[in-house]
Amino acid sequence: MTAPANDTVFTWAAPPLKFGLGALDEIGGELAASRARRVLVLTDPGVRNTGIPARVQDRIRAAGIECEVFDDVAVEPTDVSIDLAVKWAREKDWDAFVAVGGGSTIDTAKAVNLLTTHDGELLDYVTPPIGAGRVPDGPVKPLIAVPTTAGTGSESTTICVVDLLSMHLKAGVSHPRLRPTLALVDPLTTVSMPSQVTAASGMDVLSHALESYTAVRFDTKPAPADPMRRPAFCGSNPISDVWCEMALKLVGSHLRAAVHNGRDLDARYQMALASTYAGTGFGNAGTHLPHANAYPIAGMAQGYRAHGYPEMPMVPHGQAVAATAPAVFAWTYPADPERHLRAAELLSGATFTRTDGAEALPHVLRELMADIDMPSGLSAFGYGEHHIESLVDGTLKQTRQLAVVPRQLDRAAAADIFRTSL
Ligand SMILES: NC(=O)c1ccc[n+]([C@@H]2O[C@H](COP(=O)([O-])OP(=O)(O)OC[C@H]3O[C@@H](n4cnc5c(N)ncnc54)[C@H](O)[C@@H]3O)[C@@H](O)[C@H]2O)c1
Ligand SMILES: [Fe+2]
C-alpha cells in the first residue's frame, strides 16, 4: 500500500476590513449600503458602560435605520447565556447584526446569527466529538464586528467559542458562514479597556500568532479526501507566516505600554493592528496546544476571580491560553528550532542561536508575562496535581487544534505540560 500523498494546497480568507481612528463612525453608512432596515446591536454590560454601543446606535439611527441594543451578553459566553440571547433575538426579524465588544460579544453575535437563521441548538454545530458537527446549510444575515479588545481576532475568524456548562468544557463551532461580513476596527474603542483585560487579551494575540507560526506545515499533512471540505485549520503556510511575524513584532514592542498606560494611543493603535494581523493569520493556519489546553482550564475553573473582569468565577481566555504557553513552546521546540528562535527574536528584539535552545522562547514569554502582571502558573487558578488527568481529558477532545500540533501528542506529554505549568 502506498502512503497517502501530502496536501499541496492551503487556504486563506478574511472579511473586508475598515481600520482606523474614527472608523466606528462609518457604521451607519455601511449598514445603509447593505440595505438593512432593522438592526440588532449586541454588547455586554461592561462595554455598554463605556457609551460606545450607544454611539453606534446613534450612528445607525442617523442613517435612517431602526436599531435596538441587546446589552446582556455574558462575558465568556455559555450555552445558557447564548440561549437567552437567541430567544431575545428571535422576537423580531433582523436584517443585520452588529457586535460591539470583545470576543465574548462577537462570538455571541455569531451564534445568534446562526441560530436565528437555522434550526437546532448550538451543540448540534459544535466540532465533534463534543458536538454533532452539523454544517449550517443556508445563508446567514450580515454581521458587522466592532472589536473593543485587542485580542481574540474573532472579527476575522469563522469561530465561535462557547462554555458548555454541563460538560465543564469550552468548545468551538467553526464554519465559513460564521465569519463576520465586515470587521470594523477602531483603536479608539480599546482605550477604556482595564489593564488586566489589556494584558490577557494581548497574550491571546501573542499566542494566536505563535501557535499559527509553529503549527504543523500545511504540506506535511495528508491531502484531504474531499478538497472542498478542507479543515478550517490548514496549518502554517507562507501567507499566515507573514501576518504572524508582524503580529509578534508589534506585541513585543507595544503590549507592555498598552497595559501600563491605557491612554497611550500609539500603543493601543499598534495592539489593534497586531490583533488584526494575528486574527488574519490564525483564522486560517490554526491555533494548537495552548488553545486546546485553555478550553479545559477555563471550563473546569471553580473559585478563581480575575481583576478587571466581572465579579464571577472564571479564568479569562487570555490567561488560560498563556498559562501553559511557555511549557508548550519548550516542548514544540524540536519540531522547528529555527522558527522558535526567530519568534523569540521578533518578540524581544534580542538575537538567539541554537545554543540558547528550547528555553529561549519560554524565557521571553515568562519575562513579558511578569512585566504585565499575568498570573504565573495554573496553581493561581486553584489547580493542583490531582486535576491533571481531567485537564488532559479536556485537551484531548479539542480535535480542531490537535490536528495542527507540530509534534505527536500523547497523554504523558500532555500531562507533563500541565505539570510543568502548575
Ligand atoms: N472566535 C474566536 O476566534 C475566538 C478566539 C479567541 C477567543 N475567543 C473567545 O473570546 C472570549 C474572550 O474575549 P476578549 O478577551 O476579547 O474579552 P471579553 O469580550 O470577554 O471581555 C472581557 C471584559 O472586558 C470588558 N471590555 C471589553 N472591551 C472593553 C473596553 N473597550 N472598555 C472597557 N471594558 C471592556 C468586557 O465588558 C468584559 O468584562 C472568550 O470567550 C474566548 O473563548 C474567541
Ligand atoms: Fe484565543
Automatic annotation (TrEMBL):
Top EC class for this record: oxidoreductase
Keyword Oxidoreductase: yes
E.C. designation(s): 1.1.99.24
Catalytic reactions on record: 4-hydroxybutanoate + 2-oxoglutarate = (R)-2-hydroxyglutarate + succinate semialdehyde; (S)-3-hydroxybutanoate + 2-oxoglutarate = (R)-2-hydroxyglutarate + acetoacetate
Record-annotated Fe-containing alcohol dehydrogenase-like C-terminal domain positions: 236-421
Matching CDD domains: HOT
Keywords of this entry: Oxidoreductase, Transit peptide
Record bears the keyword S-adenosyl-L-methionine: no
Alcohol dehydrogenase iron-type/glycerol dehydrogenase GldA domain ranges (all copies): 18-187
InterPro entries: ADH_Fe/GldA, ADH_Fe_C, ADH_Fe_CS, Alcohol_dehydrogenase_Fe, HOT
Similarity annotation: Belongs to the iron-containing alcohol dehydrogenase family. Hydroxyacid-oxoacid transhydrogenase subfamily.
Designated name of the protein: hydroxyacid-oxoacid transhydrogenase
Species of the source: Saccharopolyspora oryzae
